[in-house]
Q: What sequence folds into this?
Protein backbone atom coordinates (compact mmCIF):
# COMPACT_ATOMS: atom_id res chain seq x y z
CA UNK A 1 0.00 0.00 0.00
CA UNK A 2 1.31 3.46 -0.97
CA UNK A 3 1.84 5.84 2.00
CA UNK A 4 -1.42 7.54 2.97
CA UNK A 5 -1.15 11.25 3.69
CA UNK A 6 -3.54 13.31 5.80
CA UNK A 7 -4.73 14.99 2.60
CA UNK A 8 -4.02 14.27 -1.06
CA UNK A 9 -4.22 17.43 -3.12
CA UNK A 10 -2.82 15.56 -6.15
CA UNK A 11 -5.95 13.41 -6.47
CA UNK A 12 -8.18 16.47 -6.32
CA UNK A 13 -6.03 18.25 -8.89
CA UNK A 14 -6.30 15.34 -11.32
CA UNK A 15 -10.10 15.58 -11.01
CA UNK A 16 -10.29 19.32 -11.81
CA UNK A 17 -7.10 19.73 -13.89
CA UNK A 18 -8.78 20.60 -17.19
CA UNK A 19 -10.96 23.36 -15.69
CA UNK A 20 -8.06 24.76 -13.68
CA UNK A 21 -5.80 24.89 -16.71
CA UNK A 22 -8.48 26.66 -18.74
CA UNK A 23 -9.04 29.24 -15.97
CA UNK A 24 -5.30 29.81 -15.51
CA UNK A 25 -4.85 30.27 -19.25
CA UNK A 26 -7.58 32.94 -19.07
CA UNK A 27 -5.64 34.71 -16.28
CA UNK A 28 -2.41 34.63 -18.28
CA UNK A 29 -4.19 36.06 -21.28
CA UNK A 30 -5.85 38.85 -19.31
CA UNK A 31 -2.67 39.81 -17.39
CA UNK A 32 -4.95 41.09 -14.62
CA UNK A 33 -3.49 39.89 -11.33
CA UNK A 34 -4.85 41.73 -8.30
CA UNK A 35 -8.60 41.98 -7.60
CA UNK A 36 -10.30 42.49 -11.01
CA UNK A 37 -12.94 40.45 -12.81
CA UNK A 38 -12.08 36.99 -11.51
CA UNK A 39 -12.13 38.18 -7.90
CA UNK A 40 -15.55 39.86 -8.36
CA UNK A 41 -16.86 36.71 -10.04
CA UNK A 42 -15.67 34.51 -7.18
CA UNK A 43 -17.05 36.92 -4.57
CA UNK A 44 -20.47 36.91 -6.26
CA UNK A 45 -20.55 33.12 -6.53
CA UNK A 46 -19.41 32.64 -2.93
CA UNK A 47 -22.03 35.14 -1.70
CA UNK A 48 -24.77 33.22 -3.52
CA UNK A 49 -23.50 29.92 -2.14
CA UNK A 50 -23.27 31.19 1.45
CA UNK A 51 -26.52 33.19 1.27
CA UNK A 52 -24.56 36.27 2.36
CA UNK A 53 -25.36 39.68 0.91
CA UNK A 54 -21.69 40.63 0.62
CA UNK A 55 -18.41 38.77 0.38
CA UNK A 56 -14.95 40.30 0.20
CA UNK A 57 -11.94 38.32 -1.00
CA UNK A 58 -8.82 38.88 1.09
CA UNK A 59 -5.28 37.54 1.29
CA UNK A 60 -5.79 34.86 3.98
CA UNK A 61 -8.13 33.50 6.63
CA UNK A 62 -6.10 35.34 9.27
CA UNK A 63 -6.65 38.63 7.45
CA UNK A 64 -10.36 37.79 7.09
CA UNK A 65 -10.53 37.69 10.91
CA UNK A 66 -8.37 40.78 11.47
CA UNK A 67 -10.26 42.88 8.91
CA UNK A 68 -13.64 41.76 10.28
CA UNK A 69 -12.63 42.80 13.79
CA UNK A 70 -11.13 46.09 12.58
CA UNK A 71 -14.35 46.88 10.71
CA UNK A 72 -16.25 46.35 13.96
CA UNK A 73 -13.69 48.41 15.91
CA UNK A 74 -14.10 51.30 13.45
CA UNK A 75 -17.86 51.27 13.98
CA UNK A 76 -17.58 50.93 17.78
CA UNK A 77 -14.41 52.82 18.72
CA UNK A 78 -13.21 56.27 17.62
CA UNK A 79 -9.57 55.16 17.24
CA UNK A 80 -10.50 52.41 14.78
CA UNK A 81 -9.00 49.77 17.07
CA UNK A 82 -10.44 48.13 20.15
CA UNK A 83 -9.09 49.05 23.59
CA UNK A 84 -7.07 46.51 25.50
CA UNK A 85 -9.86 46.35 28.07
CA UNK A 86 -12.33 45.22 25.38
CA UNK A 87 -12.78 41.48 25.74
CA UNK A 88 -13.64 39.04 22.96
CA UNK A 89 -14.54 35.53 24.07
CA UNK A 90 -13.13 32.63 22.12
CA UNK A 91 -11.85 29.06 22.39
CA UNK A 92 -8.28 28.13 23.30
CA UNK A 93 -8.56 24.91 21.27
CA UNK A 94 -7.98 26.32 17.79
CA UNK A 95 -5.27 27.51 15.46
CA UNK A 96 -3.28 30.46 16.81
CA UNK A 97 -4.67 32.86 14.15
CA UNK A 98 -8.05 33.03 15.94
CA UNK A 99 -6.74 34.78 19.05
CA UNK A 100 -3.87 36.50 17.23
CA UNK A 101 -6.49 38.38 15.18
CA UNK A 102 -8.22 39.55 18.37
CA UNK A 103 -4.96 40.97 19.72
CA UNK A 104 -4.15 42.61 16.37
CA UNK A 105 -7.51 44.41 16.47
CA UNK A 106 -6.50 45.92 19.83
CA UNK A 107 -8.80 43.78 22.01
CA UNK A 108 -8.00 41.04 24.51
CA UNK A 109 -9.03 37.43 23.98
CA UNK A 110 -10.77 35.67 26.85
CA UNK A 111 -10.44 31.93 26.59
CA UNK A 112 -13.36 29.71 27.56
CA UNK A 113 -13.54 25.91 27.78
CA UNK A 114 -14.98 23.69 25.07
CA UNK A 115 -17.43 20.83 24.89
CA UNK A 116 -15.33 17.65 24.92
CA UNK A 117 -17.64 15.92 22.42
CA UNK A 118 -17.82 18.61 19.74
CA UNK A 119 -14.42 20.27 20.48
CA UNK A 120 -16.23 23.62 20.07
CA UNK A 121 -16.73 26.43 22.60
CA UNK A 122 -19.24 25.56 25.32
CA UNK A 123 -22.19 28.05 25.31
CA UNK A 124 -22.88 27.61 29.05
CA UNK A 125 -19.28 28.40 30.00
CA UNK A 126 -19.23 31.24 27.48
CA UNK A 127 -22.25 32.81 29.18
CA UNK A 128 -20.47 32.74 32.54
CA UNK A 129 -17.39 34.49 31.10
CA UNK A 130 -19.29 37.65 30.05
CA UNK A 131 -18.27 40.79 31.92
CA UNK A 132 -19.02 44.50 31.49
CA UNK A 133 -15.97 44.65 29.20
CA UNK A 134 -17.08 41.92 26.81
CA UNK A 135 -17.70 43.29 23.32
CA UNK A 136 -17.99 40.16 21.21
CA UNK A 137 -17.80 36.42 20.71
CA UNK A 138 -15.56 34.62 18.23
CA UNK A 139 -16.72 31.01 17.89
CA UNK A 140 -14.67 28.59 15.76
CA UNK A 141 -16.39 25.83 13.77
CA UNK A 142 -13.53 23.47 14.45
CA UNK A 143 -12.65 20.63 12.09
CA UNK A 144 -15.75 21.44 10.00
CA UNK A 145 -18.37 20.99 12.72
CA UNK A 146 -20.68 23.92 13.43
CA UNK A 147 -20.86 25.53 16.88
CA UNK A 148 -24.28 25.73 18.56
CA UNK A 149 -25.12 28.95 16.74
CA UNK A 150 -28.67 29.26 18.06
CA UNK A 151 -27.40 29.39 21.65
CA UNK A 152 -24.45 31.63 20.80
CA UNK A 153 -26.65 34.05 18.82
CA UNK A 154 -29.16 34.16 21.68
CA UNK A 155 -26.42 34.99 24.23
CA UNK A 156 -24.97 37.63 21.91
CA UNK A 157 -28.36 39.24 21.40
CA UNK A 158 -29.17 39.27 25.11
CA UNK A 159 -25.85 40.93 26.03
CA UNK A 160 -25.57 43.13 22.94
CA UNK A 161 -22.35 41.47 21.71
CA UNK A 162 -21.13 41.07 18.16
CA UNK A 163 -20.35 37.65 16.72
CA UNK A 164 -17.54 36.96 14.26
CA UNK A 165 -17.54 33.37 13.06
CA UNK A 166 -14.17 31.73 12.45
CA UNK A 167 -15.33 29.50 9.61
CA UNK A 168 -11.79 28.81 8.36
CA UNK A 169 -12.38 25.06 8.53
CA UNK A 170 -16.06 24.93 7.61
CA UNK A 171 -16.87 26.10 4.08
CA UNK A 172 -20.20 24.59 3.05
CA UNK A 173 -21.12 23.38 6.51
CA UNK A 174 -24.55 24.30 7.83
CA UNK A 175 -26.34 24.51 11.14
CA UNK A 176 -30.04 23.62 11.32
CA UNK A 177 -30.22 23.99 7.54
CA UNK A 178 -28.60 27.44 7.44
CA UNK A 179 -25.09 27.93 6.05
CA UNK A 180 -22.26 28.57 8.46
CA UNK A 181 -21.01 32.06 7.81
CA UNK A 182 -24.50 33.55 7.82
CA UNK A 183 -25.02 33.66 11.60
CA UNK A 184 -22.44 36.21 12.74
CA UNK A 185 -22.12 39.92 12.04
CA UNK A 186 -19.18 38.85 9.92
CA UNK A 187 -17.58 35.50 9.10
CA UNK A 188 -14.05 34.61 8.12
CA UNK A 189 -13.09 31.79 5.74
CA UNK A 190 -9.63 30.47 4.93
CA UNK A 191 -8.66 28.97 1.60
CA UNK A 192 -5.27 27.73 2.78
CA UNK A 193 -4.46 24.82 0.41
CA UNK A 194 -5.25 22.09 2.96
CA UNK A 195 -8.71 23.46 3.74
CA UNK A 196 -11.78 21.71 2.29
CA UNK A 197 -12.04 24.62 -0.14
CA UNK A 198 -8.39 25.40 -0.78
CA UNK A 199 -6.58 27.69 -3.18
CA UNK A 200 -3.06 27.25 -4.57
CA UNK A 201 -1.57 29.64 -2.02
CA UNK A 202 -2.92 31.88 0.73
CA UNK A 203 -6.42 33.30 0.32
CA UNK A 204 -9.45 34.13 2.45
CA UNK A 205 -12.94 35.61 2.42
CA UNK A 206 -15.14 37.74 4.65
CA UNK A 207 -18.91 37.24 4.45
CA UNK A 208 -21.46 39.61 5.93
CA UNK A 209 -24.96 40.88 5.31
CA UNK A 210 -24.20 44.31 6.76
CA UNK A 211 -23.47 46.85 3.99
CA UNK A 212 -21.49 49.25 6.22
CA UNK A 213 -19.25 46.47 7.57
CA UNK A 214 -18.77 45.07 4.06
CA UNK A 215 -17.69 48.47 2.77
CA UNK A 216 -15.24 48.89 5.67
CA UNK A 217 -13.64 45.48 5.01
CA UNK A 218 -13.38 46.37 1.31
CA UNK A 219 -11.63 49.64 2.22
CA UNK A 220 -9.37 48.02 4.82
CA UNK A 221 -8.12 45.33 2.42
CA UNK A 222 -6.79 48.07 0.16
CA UNK A 223 -4.72 50.19 2.57
CA UNK A 224 -7.76 51.82 4.15
CA UNK A 225 -8.42 53.75 0.94
CA UNK A 226 -12.01 54.64 0.15
CA UNK A 227 -10.73 56.03 -3.16
CA UNK A 228 -7.34 55.90 -4.81
CA UNK A 229 -4.88 57.96 -2.71
CA UNK A 230 -7.55 58.71 -0.08
CA UNK A 231 -6.74 56.61 2.99
CA UNK A 232 -9.40 56.96 5.68
CA UNK A 233 -8.02 54.30 8.03
CA UNK A 234 -4.76 52.47 8.67
CA UNK A 235 -5.46 49.47 6.50
CA UNK A 236 -3.74 46.45 4.99
CA UNK A 237 -2.49 45.11 1.72
CA UNK A 238 -4.85 42.17 1.76
CA UNK A 239 -6.25 41.85 -1.73
CA UNK A 240 -7.23 38.50 -3.17
CA UNK A 241 -5.37 37.82 -6.41
CA UNK A 242 -6.94 36.74 -9.69
CA UNK A 243 -5.16 33.37 -9.89
CA UNK A 244 -6.44 32.27 -6.47
CA UNK A 245 -9.94 33.54 -7.36
CA UNK A 246 -9.89 31.63 -10.66
CA UNK A 247 -8.90 28.41 -8.89
CA UNK A 248 -11.55 28.94 -6.23
CA UNK A 249 -14.23 29.47 -8.91
CA UNK A 250 -13.46 25.99 -10.25
CA UNK A 251 -13.32 24.36 -6.82
CA UNK A 252 -16.50 26.06 -5.58
CA UNK A 253 -18.46 24.22 -8.30
CA UNK A 254 -17.49 20.92 -6.68
CA UNK A 255 -17.62 21.84 -2.99
CA UNK A 256 -20.94 20.13 -2.20
CA UNK A 257 -19.81 16.95 -3.90
CA UNK A 258 -16.40 17.06 -2.16
CA UNK A 259 -18.04 17.67 1.24
CA UNK A 260 -20.43 14.80 0.57
CA UNK A 261 -17.50 12.51 -0.27
CA UNK A 262 -15.81 13.55 2.99
CA UNK A 263 -19.00 12.56 4.86
CA UNK A 264 -18.96 9.20 3.09
CA UNK A 265 -15.35 8.60 4.16
CA UNK A 266 -16.26 9.58 7.74
CA UNK A 267 -19.26 7.24 7.76
CA UNK A 268 -17.08 4.32 6.77
CA UNK A 269 -14.44 5.20 9.39
CA UNK A 270 -17.24 5.52 11.99
CA UNK A 271 -18.57 2.08 11.08
CA UNK A 272 -15.16 0.42 11.26
CA UNK A 273 -14.21 2.09 14.56
CA UNK A 274 -17.44 1.08 16.28
CA UNK A 275 -15.88 -2.21 17.40
CA UNK A 276 -12.66 -0.64 18.75
CA UNK A 277 -13.36 0.40 22.32
CA UNK A 278 -10.12 2.43 22.71
CA UNK A 279 -11.25 4.81 19.98
CA UNK A 280 -14.16 7.24 19.72
CA UNK A 281 -15.21 8.57 16.32
CA UNK A 282 -16.04 12.30 16.03
CA UNK A 283 -19.52 13.15 17.23
CA UNK A 284 -21.68 14.18 14.31
CA UNK A 285 -25.18 15.34 15.11
CA UNK A 286 -27.51 15.36 12.15
CA UNK A 287 -28.46 19.04 12.50
CA UNK A 288 -24.79 20.02 12.59
CA UNK A 289 -23.94 18.70 9.14
CA UNK A 290 -20.19 18.03 9.70
CA UNK A 291 -18.05 18.57 6.60
CA UNK A 292 -14.97 16.83 8.11
CA UNK A 293 -12.28 19.30 7.21
CA UNK A 294 -10.45 16.97 9.58
CA UNK A 295 -11.46 13.58 10.93
CA UNK A 296 -10.38 13.72 14.55
CA UNK A 297 -10.83 10.74 16.83
CA UNK A 298 -10.35 10.41 20.56
CA UNK A 299 -7.90 7.69 21.52
CA UNK A 300 -8.39 6.58 25.13
CA UNK A 301 -4.96 5.02 25.62
CA UNK A 302 -1.51 5.10 23.99
CA UNK A 303 -2.38 7.84 21.48
CA UNK A 304 1.25 8.70 20.68
CA UNK A 305 2.24 5.03 20.34
CA UNK A 306 -0.71 4.49 17.99
CA UNK A 307 0.39 7.46 15.88
CA UNK A 308 3.95 6.07 15.67
CA UNK A 309 2.65 2.62 14.79
CA UNK A 310 0.41 4.01 12.03
CA UNK A 311 3.39 5.97 10.70
CA UNK A 312 5.44 2.75 10.55
CA UNK A 313 2.62 1.28 8.43
CA UNK A 314 2.67 4.24 6.01
CA UNK A 315 -0.32 6.04 7.53
CA UNK A 316 0.02 9.72 8.45
CA UNK A 317 -1.76 11.16 11.48
CA UNK A 318 -1.53 14.54 13.20
CA UNK A 319 -2.36 16.11 16.52
CA UNK A 320 -4.61 19.12 16.12
CA UNK A 321 -3.92 20.84 18.54
CA UNK A 322 -1.18 19.80 20.91
CA UNK A 323 -1.08 23.07 22.91
CA UNK A 324 -4.04 25.22 24.02
CA UNK A 325 -3.60 28.92 23.27
CA UNK A 326 -3.60 29.96 26.95
CA UNK A 327 -0.34 28.02 27.36
CA UNK A 328 1.44 29.80 24.52
CA UNK A 329 4.03 32.48 25.28
CA UNK A 330 2.33 34.93 22.88
CA UNK A 331 -0.80 34.91 25.07
CA UNK A 332 0.94 35.08 28.42
CA UNK A 333 -1.10 37.02 30.95
CA UNK A 334 -4.30 36.74 28.92
CA UNK A 335 -7.49 35.82 30.72
CA UNK A 336 -8.37 32.15 30.71
CA UNK A 337 -11.73 31.55 32.36
CA UNK A 338 -12.38 28.33 34.23
CA UNK A 339 -10.50 25.12 34.82
CA UNK A 340 -10.47 23.96 31.16
CA UNK A 341 -11.49 20.50 32.20
CA UNK A 342 -12.66 19.57 28.71
CA UNK A 343 -9.55 20.91 26.96
CA UNK A 344 -7.31 19.07 29.43
CA UNK A 345 -9.35 15.90 28.97
CA UNK A 346 -9.06 15.82 25.18
CA UNK A 347 -5.49 17.11 24.72
CA UNK A 348 -3.81 13.72 25.24
CA UNK A 349 -6.50 11.94 23.19
CA UNK A 350 -7.07 13.80 19.90
CA UNK A 351 -5.66 12.32 16.71
CA UNK A 352 -6.56 13.39 13.18
CA UNK A 353 -6.53 10.68 10.52
CA UNK A 354 -6.24 10.93 6.72
CA UNK A 355 -9.29 12.72 5.32
CA UNK A 356 -9.99 13.94 1.82
CA UNK A 357 -12.74 13.35 -0.77
CA UNK A 358 -10.70 10.82 -2.72
CA UNK A 359 -9.68 8.50 0.12
CA UNK A 360 -10.44 5.01 -1.19
CA UNK A 361 -12.43 2.35 0.57
CA UNK A 362 -9.38 0.07 0.57
CA UNK A 363 -7.31 2.82 2.26
CA UNK A 364 -9.97 3.44 4.93
CA UNK A 365 -10.12 -0.29 5.64
CA UNK A 366 -6.32 -0.50 5.78
CA UNK A 367 -6.20 2.38 8.30
CA UNK A 368 -8.96 0.87 10.48
CA UNK A 369 -7.34 -2.57 10.29
CA UNK A 370 -4.07 -1.09 11.55
CA UNK A 371 -5.78 0.74 14.42
CA UNK A 372 -7.45 -2.54 15.27
CA UNK A 373 -4.25 -4.58 15.14
CA UNK A 374 -2.40 -1.98 17.27
CA UNK A 375 -4.93 -2.44 20.07
CA UNK A 376 -5.04 -6.25 19.66
CA UNK A 377 -1.28 -6.61 20.16
C1 LIG B 1 -9.48 27.86 12.85
C2 LIG B 1 -8.60 28.68 11.95
N1 LIG B 1 -8.64 30.01 12.03
C3 LIG B 1 -7.90 30.79 11.23
C4 LIG B 1 -7.04 30.24 10.31
C5 LIG B 1 -6.17 31.14 9.51
O1 LIG B 1 -6.30 30.98 8.12
P1 LIG B 1 -5.08 31.25 7.14
O2 LIG B 1 -4.08 30.18 7.31
O3 LIG B 1 -5.71 31.25 5.78
O4 LIG B 1 -4.53 32.58 7.48
C6 LIG B 1 -6.96 28.85 10.19
C7 LIG B 1 -6.13 28.22 9.16
O5 LIG B 1 -5.12 27.69 9.28
C8 LIG B 1 -7.74 28.04 11.04
O6 LIG B 1 -7.69 26.72 10.98
A:
Amino acid sequence: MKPINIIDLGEEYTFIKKDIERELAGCLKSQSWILGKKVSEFEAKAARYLSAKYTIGVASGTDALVLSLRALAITLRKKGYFDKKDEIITTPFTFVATAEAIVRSGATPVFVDINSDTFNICPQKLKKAITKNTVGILPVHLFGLACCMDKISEIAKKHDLFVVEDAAQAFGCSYQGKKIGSFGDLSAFSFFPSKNLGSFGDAGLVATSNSRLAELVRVLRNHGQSKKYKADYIGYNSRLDSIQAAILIVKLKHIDKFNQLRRKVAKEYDRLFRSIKQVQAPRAYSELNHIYNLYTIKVFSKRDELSKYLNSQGIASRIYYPVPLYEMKAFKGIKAKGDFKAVREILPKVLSLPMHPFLRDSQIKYIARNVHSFFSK
Notes: The domain at 9-248 is CATH 3.40.640.10 (Aspartate Aminotransferase; domain 2).
